[in-house]
Amino acid sequence: MLNCPFIMNNNDILRRLRYTFRISDTAMTEHFLKGGNEVNIEQITNWLKKDEEAGFIPLYDVQLAAFLNGFIIKNRGEKGSEVPKPEKSLNNNLIFRKLRIALNLKDEDILEILLLADFRFSKSELAALFRNPEHEKFRVCKDQILRNFLMGLQIQKTGRKPGDPPPVSQIPK
User: Fold this and answer.
1) What is the span of the domain harbouring residue 134?
2) Separation CA 127–CA 146 (nearest Å)
3) How confident is residue 42, by pLDDT bands cut at 50, 70 and 90?
4) Residue 34 is inside which H or E element, if any?
5) CA-CA distance, 30 to 108, in Å (whole number)?
6) Are residues 123 and 73 in the same domain?
7) I want to staple 72 with a disulfide (CB 3.0 to 4.6 A). Which of 5, 19, 29, 102 is the partner?
8) How much of the chain, in percent, has pLDDT values that exceed 90?
9) Are residues 61 and 131 in the same domain?
């Protein structure tokens, strides 16, 4: 399995989505704005830095929620004229649900994406992640599941696994 030993945080998720979908700084500011949070490129730059880099700023749940809402709007279109209000608190289940909506993914699509990251998961386990938290069969989405889903997305969209060297055509001469 292609598992990374670290715990996911909002900055990691934003970094992975930016890389996977090749989202420019300008497009990122538009996603945030559509999601109800006006930001500037300097803020985005600081959110994209690694934790140990100078200028790193943690990305809070409400900010990631705004980005994900904007990502949904960009991919699926606006639902009326009202800007969605970003949630103040996120968890992996909600992040996963928002990505599923934004990318219009069916269960089979998600299972295929997870397999790209060598992560085996059943349809019933997946359904449990998207149930109402009050439901007896609800299951908490652990970091490992979300991390492998994001890794599978990256492999699907870029053809590269995290840590792979860049293609020869992208190596400076």
Assistant:
1) 105-161
2) 14
3) very high
4) helix 25-34
5) 30
6) no
7) 102
8) 82
9) no
